[in-house]
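Tokens as discussed.
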């Protein structure tokens, strides 16, 4: 069985229903993981998605904020949803495919503007969230699993447009990078995207604040696809769909894709 998986912070699934449908038509991933849906589950616009073959969904929703969903052409059953750091936010959903693969879809807190938990509660929440992710996967060793989502951290120097300038900017600070590394290590997760594209600058997010986002290219790789060691060799064809950032009324994130032969 071969399937292609995509992850995309959509920044409102209802506002960008047409973009989701366009991605489904043009790329046709078998599984599409969305973050920041900003919608209760019962308000997610499924009619058009179902018409395009996406008959299955597991999701957690929240009015106006957060929200995660896995839309699938393949049968999928819910496999859990965690409220890490007890924030009461819809930031995680897990689904299990018929072949036994578990997919974790995460939307890690952004962390606010100041990288100091003493003056910025949101930054503390982000670190606490990552710590509880780490502890969860230490206690529940994942197997035959994929973890995707907007993790809101660009870990490598070439995952940001300027490493030195961003060292004190939330999403690339050393304390966040270390927290993400510990979370990754806790489940022995392998960064699939960088396994396939090991060298060079690579981004999945460009700020709305830049009117010439493409020309300025001040991006960050905040969106990730990880896999457990037992299935990582089945992954191939990773790519980031940069042109999607240029669609009309876009999300500020671009989809990240990978294919698995399992």
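Sequence:
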């Amino acid at each position: 069985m071969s399937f292609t998986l995509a992850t995309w912070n959509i920044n409102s699934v209802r506002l960008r229903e047409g973009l989701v449908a366009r991605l489904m038509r043009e790329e046709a991933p078998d599984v599409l993981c969305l973050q920041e849906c900003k919608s209760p589950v019962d308000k997610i616009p499924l009619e058009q998605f179902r018409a395009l073959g996406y008959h299955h969904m597991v999701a957690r929703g929240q009015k106006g904020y957060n929200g995660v969903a896995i839309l699938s052409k393949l049968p999928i059953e819910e496999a859990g949803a965690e409220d890490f750091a007890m924030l009461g936010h819809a930031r995680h959903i897990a689904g299990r495919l018929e072949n036994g693969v578990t997919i974790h879809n995460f939307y890690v807190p952004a962390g606010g503007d100041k990288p100091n938990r003493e003056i910025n509660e949101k930054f503390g929440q982000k670190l606490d969230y990552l710590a509880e992710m780490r502890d969860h996967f230490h206690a529940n060793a994942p197997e035959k699993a994929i973890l995707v989502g907007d993790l809101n951290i660009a870990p490598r120097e070439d995952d940001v447009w300027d490493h030195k300038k961003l060292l004190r900017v939330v999403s690339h600070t050393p304390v966040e990078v270390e927290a993400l590394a510990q979370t990754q290590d806790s489940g022995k997760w392998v960064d699939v995207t960088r396994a396939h594209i090991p060298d060079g600058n690579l981004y999945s997010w460009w700020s709305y604040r830049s009117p010439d986002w493409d020309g300025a290219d001040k991006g960050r790789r905040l969106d990730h696809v990880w896999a457990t060691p037992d299935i990582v060799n089945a992954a191939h064809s990773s790519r980031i769909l940069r042109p999607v950032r240029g669609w009309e009324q876009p999300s500020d994130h671009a989809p990240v894709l990978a294919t698995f032969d399992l």
